Every structure is written in C-alpha cells, then in structure tokens.
C-alpha cells in the first residue's frame, strides 16, 4: 500500500493504538475491524504524502523489501510486491490502490472492502474494475526469483565486470529500462535509461566507479533476483532485476540511504487466509 517500511510501521503503530483503546469484547469480528482500521490509516497516509512524492528529487522507487525465498513461490504475492507493480500502484489514486490490493492480492470481497474504504459495494466494484484495467494496461512481464533468473543475473554481472559489451547486450532485452533512485542524496541517474545500448553504457560507467573493496552479494528483494553492492561493510547500492524469457527487461537501482536502512531485514510475506465476514 505505501511502498515504505517506515510509513508502514507508522500506520501499524497508529492502528495498534486505536485497537488498544477498544474493548475487544465489543468487536464481533476483530480481523475485519483491524483490516478496516489499517486500510483507512494507510489511505490517510497516502493522501498526506502525495505532495512529498511530487517534490522528490529524481525518480522515486519504492523501498526495497528483502523477501524470504519462499515468497517467489507465490506468483501473485511476488508480483504484487515487485518494483514494477509497486510503480504501477503509484499511478492509482489512494482508494483505487486500496481496493486493488485488498481484492486482487488478498482476496477480500467487494462487500468487505466497501466497509473498509467507506464506499458502497456497487461503487467498490466499479473502482475495482477501473483499477484492474489500469494495472493490466501497465503491468510489465514478470518472473519471480529462481535458479534460472539468477543465472541471467550472474551472466549480466560477469559481463559488466569484465567489460564484455556484446555479452552484456545479449542478456539485455531491446526495450530494457534502468531506473535509479538516489533521492538527491547520492549520485544517481535523474531519469530512466532506456534501450539496450544506453543501459549497457550506463551500467559499465557505474561499475567503473566501484572500488576493489566492493563486493557483490546475491539476494531476493521484492520477490525478484537482486544484487547488493557492499563497500566496507555498508550497503550502498541495491539492484533488483526484472527478467522475462531469459533477458533482463528492467533494472531497479536504489541508492537513497534512507531506503536502504531497512534492507537487511527479511520479510516472510504471506497473503494469508481469512474467514468471510459480513459488515
């Protein structure tokens, strides 16, 4: 919903305070009540940070989430937290985003969602249809982290480190897009880099700035294969790879130190299940 660990923690803290002030005996469906509270707090937060996002220096990327390997086994969950999908969700208004996430990712009914967002069930159906059509028109091809995708990343990194331009070009899709997020605090491309030749040139230029003290670690972030660039024990660059049919279609590089703050924690995400309830 929020694309930021810190923001999510703030919402959960506020929601917990509201829950702790309620007598549980008076709540017939605790899970439904909590979903409603958290959803509304998230909506309020999204509306409040809109101006902050518009003033962001350079391209904004969601905060990378270090996901447990098993997340990649759930295709719907893995795609829902992928960098590409998070960027698509940013183009929805807050209510559309909440409806899409609750219905298409977590499986809540339109009636349940209506109570959470303060709309009628008919209106929620319309919002869900509009949001789904918007997402489907913009979603990118996606393959979760796996042994096959990691082999592609390994070939890419080896070619980039050794300066093998042709090998590097071969592993990139013709319409590949590279997006960097430095937040105006570190050096990063201010605009997306598109096309195989431009991306290859950009990557080779970036790797020339690394030092002998930099080591590369493989990991899973947002359900995607990723590479961590660690210098002197500090994570200073993280790249998540979007791969389709054996070629890299997207690179998402996060350098903003504020967004790397939570990058060590592993999130064992779970869509979970819930008993139907009647609001």
Automatic annotation (TrEMBL):
Domain RNA polymerase sigma-70 region residues, every copy: 1-48
Transcription in keyword set: yes
InterPro entries hit by this protein: ECF_Sigma-70_Domain (IPR052704), NTF2-like_dom_sf (IPR032710), RNA_pol_sigma-70_dom (IPR014284), RNA_pol_sigma70_r2 (IPR007627), RNA_pol_sigma70_r4_t2 (IPR013249), RNA_pol_sigma_r2 (IPR013325), RNA_pol_sigma_r3/r4-like (IPR013324), WH-like_DNA-bd_sf (IPR036388)
Domain RNA polymerase sigma factor 70 region 4 type residue range list: 83-134
UniProt keyword annotation of Transcription regulation present: yes
Alphabetically ordered keywords of this record: Sigma factor, Transcription, Transcription regulation
Subunit structure: Interacts transiently with the RNA polymerase catalytic core formed by RpoA, RpoB, RpoC and RpoZ (2 alpha, 1 beta, 1 beta' and 1 omega subunit) to form the RNA polymerase holoenzyme that can initiate transcription.
PANTHER family, per database record: ECF RNA POLYMERASE SIGMA FACTOR SIGJ, SIGMA 19 FACTOR
Family: Belongs to the sigma-70 factor family. ECF subfamily.
The name this protein goes by in its record: RNA polymerase sigma factor SigJ
Organism: Streptomyces caniferus
Species lineage: Bacteria, Bacillati, Actinomycetota, Actinomycetes, Kitasatosporales
Gene: sigJ
């Amino acid at each position: 919903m929020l694309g930021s660990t810190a923001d999510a923690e703030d919402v959960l803290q506020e929601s917990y305070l509201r829950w702790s002030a309620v007598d549980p005996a008076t709540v017939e469906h605790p899970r439904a009540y909590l979903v409603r509270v958290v959803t509304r707090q998230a909506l309020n937060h999204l509306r409040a940070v809109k101006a902050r996002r518009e003033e962001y220096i350079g391209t904004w990327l969601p905060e990378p989430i270090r996901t447990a390997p098993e997340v990649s086994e759930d295709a719907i969950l893995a795609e829902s937290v992928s960098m590409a999908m998070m960027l698509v969700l940013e183009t929805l208004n807050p209510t559309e985003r909440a409806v899409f996430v609750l219905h298409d990712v977590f499986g809540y009914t339109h009636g349940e969602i209506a109570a959470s967002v303060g709309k009628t069930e008919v209106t929620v159906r319309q919002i869900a249809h509009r949001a789904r059509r918007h997402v489907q028109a913009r979603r990118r091809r996606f393959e979760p982290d796996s042994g096959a995708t990691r082999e592609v990343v390994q070939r890419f990194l080896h070619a980039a480190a050794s300066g093998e331009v042709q090998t590097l070009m071969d592993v990139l899709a013709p319409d590949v897009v590279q997006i960097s997020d430095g937040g105006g605090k570190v050096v990063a491309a201010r605009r997306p880099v598109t096309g195989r030749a431009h991306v290859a040139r950009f990557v080779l230029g970036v790797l020339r700035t690394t030092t002998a003290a930099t080591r590369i670690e493989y990991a899973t972030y947002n359900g995607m294969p990723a590479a961590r660039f660690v210098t002197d024990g500090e994570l200073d660059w993280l790249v998540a790879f979007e791969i389709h049919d054996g070629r890299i279609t997207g690179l998402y590089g996060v350098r903003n130190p504020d967004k790397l703050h939570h990058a060590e924690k592993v999130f064992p995400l779970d869509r979970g299940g819930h008993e139907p309830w009647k609001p």
